[in-house]
Amino acid sequence: MSDAQRRSYDTLFPRYAVPFGQEPADFPQLFGNDNPLIVEIGFGMGIATALIAQAHPRRNYLGIEVHRPGIGRLLWEIENRRIENIRIIEHDAVEVLEKMIQDCSIEGFHLFFPDPWQKKRHHKRRLVTRPFTDLLAVKLRPSGYIYMVTDWADYGDWALAELSATPGLINRYEGFAPPQLWRPETKFERKGLNKNHQTYELFFTSGQGEYLYRETPDLSG
Ligand SMILES: C[S@@+](CC[C@H](N)C(=O)[O-])C[C@H]1O[C@@H](n2cnc3c(N)ncnc32)[C@H](O)[C@@H]1O
User: Which class does domain 3-16+34-206 fall in?
Assistant: First the structure.
């Protein structure tokens, strides 16, 4: 952790972090409003998280991450950009979903470059795998969305198969989605692009209805 990250972590964590607990959290109370709630799993350094939240002040963002320097960095962004609509949980996302998130309550899930677990014997550790995708689907409100991006082709194919097989989810595109222009580049993505990696985007919704992210600002840079 850098000194700045440590300082932000120590001073801002109590204000913006939600302690992990065994009971469903009361998000309207935590945010002070009942705006739609979007959950980002594994935000890394959180720069994209901060930019998206800043561009959409009438939506709430819950970032779940286990990497403490990244949490310190996002807290620093929250303070510097005066962002009010982000809260953080420092814990394993699977347990957070199981315990703290009510069914049918989430507007969207963002999974930007989840760990690809490249070796075949590690594939079972991939997050975007059933039954975890079933849990995501159960937590979504009608017309809620799951937006995943990876730069690992094999994980892209894998996730496409797993999400397509998940009851209640509908792929809004044929195969991979076109780049969603409201998503800023992430730190991990930049590293891959510098090595000429390609990006694979997946966009699924729960039901066929209109979903939230239509016609929103272009943050793709
Ligand atoms: C490859 S990094 C991508 C980070 C960021 N989204 C980006 O694109 O720069 C994956 C991140 O997911 C986090 N992560 C992995 N498994 C997790 C879990 N079960 N719960 C919460 N975070 C997790 C890791 O700590 C890591 O920061």
Answer: alpha beta
